[in-house]
Amino acid sequence: MPQIIVNIIQLAIVQGILLSLLLYLKKENRHANRVLSVAILILSLDILCIYLSQMRIYEKYPFLFGFNVGYPFIYGPIFYIYTLLVTRREGKFKPKLLLHFIPFVVVYLYASPFYLLSHDEKLLKINEYMTQLQWDMEIISIFKPIHGILYTWLSLRIITEFSERLKISFSNIDKKKLDWLKFLIMSTMIVWVVVAIVILAGLILGSHDILFNVIIYFFISIFIYAIGYGALNHAEALNQTELEIDAIQDQIRDKYEKSNLRDEDIIRLKDELLEIMRTKKLFLKNDLTLGNLADELGITNHNLSEVISKAFNKNFYDLINTYRVEEFKELVKNPDYSHYSLLAVAFESGFSSKSSFNTIFKKFTETTPSEYRKQFA
Asked: In this structure, are 209 and 333 located in the same domain?
């Protein structure tokens, strides 16, 4: 194994253990961070196991061979649980979540006879594994990426649903749309795809070379570096306040089943809302929330959400950003703003980032901001 790869793997092990400790001690998002801490610790131990195998340490201590055989069945569930905790689908880690780790337990129960063998018998079994195709272990290997990809897909679904729920109460979700969490989960998907490719290659070539494992764990090492960077630089973006999240969850849970608004009330409130948006232009406040607008109208968040849904057939996020897009279109035609950059005009219109502005503008106009401006050049 090239020395540079050895160095990368060694540093990833050390970084992973240190990062695990730091996350465990963090007070913010305590439950979520502790789950992530355990995930990174297990990843680090997993890499350590393969590193020791590459160093052929199992020849002296055969009980260490395959010690990490069930670890891959931890990763899908643990990142799924982390996603549940970050998005507040689960308030804290509950014992029932341990059911997700049943496959992990089953694999170790199946492999347990190996650990009951004598020293010499273990060495013979290891040699057999290294030189002959073991279909039972191959089947377990095949299920590893399938299991992981399934859980990663479930995690991505939760993130997507949570982003949609945020749009009920926020007009700007740049700081709340969980880009870091998406990056984390998509990175795990990439790792699982690499695992699937390597396992498939091993089956086709009929090889059990440890080099195949080294390829997988090299990517896992890079993954740990990425988590370290993200956890230290972007984790605070996940710190939604409990009140914000609870408010969103309540709105979704209750919907409008207990509505006390009549049709005439909705029409009246719609007109009041239109008037406020026309005269006060609250949409220019880039961090405008449903609560801010409800206070202006003197009604509850719940009732305002109902009015927006029934009168405009939109959520709060789309309604406010529709106004921002229209404001941008007006400003970009104004000669006084001809010397402004597109981004500067977007900021004047209430947007807070280039990426969200471009995405929203294209969604509502089916053209890009630059193409739109060229029409009035």
From this structure: no
From the list 27, 148, 160, the residue with the least C-alpha distance to 83 is: 160
| CATH number, domain containing residue 330 | 1.10.10.60
Query: Taken in order 164, 166, 169, 174, is the CA torsion positive or negative?
Result: negative
C-alpha distances (whole Å) from 310 to each of 255, 262, 315, 319 are: 12, 11, 10, 12
Tokens 């409990």, located at residue: 242
Q: Give which of 186, 180, 170, 308 is closest to 241, Cα–Cα.
A: 170
- 153 located within any domain: yes
Which residues touch 17 (CB under 8 Å, ≥6 apart)?
41, 44
Q: Which range marks the domain in which residue 138 is found?
A: 3-243
Q: Is residue 250 part of a domain?
A: no
- The tokens for 332 are 């970009």
**Two tokens, residue 93:** 């880690």
Q: What is the pLDDT of residues 300-359, one digit of tens each?
A: 888 898 999 999 999 999 999 999 999 999 999 888 888 899 999 999 999 988 888 998
